[in-house]
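Record copied across here:
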Amino acid sequence: MALVVPLSRFTSLVGGGSAFFVSRLMLRYILESKTQKITADQAEAKHLVSDSRLGKKPVPFGFQNQRWQVLLSKFQSGDDLWEYDHYVGPLCAEAGIAILRGGEVVDHIVTMRS
């Protein structure tokens, strides 16, 4: 059985994001795996994390909030936010949210990896 845990639950408190190398192949997987167009408000509501280390109020994307803010800072008029869900097998899957501009991935945040 594979363990699937949202990255926002354990990403480092310092730095706010993962440092995984993003290849052209992964960008293609994101484009091929996009599932639903969403707004920033919808994404934040869906990915609220409650943790005493974050304070009393739930925080969008938890310990990845800083990474989320960086992603949002790249969003321009005409861009779209898309959820993606790339599944290879029981022990190899990734989900997240990507900014698409003119059909190309500008940046993304990983919300689940197994």
Notes: The longest strand covers residues 80-89.
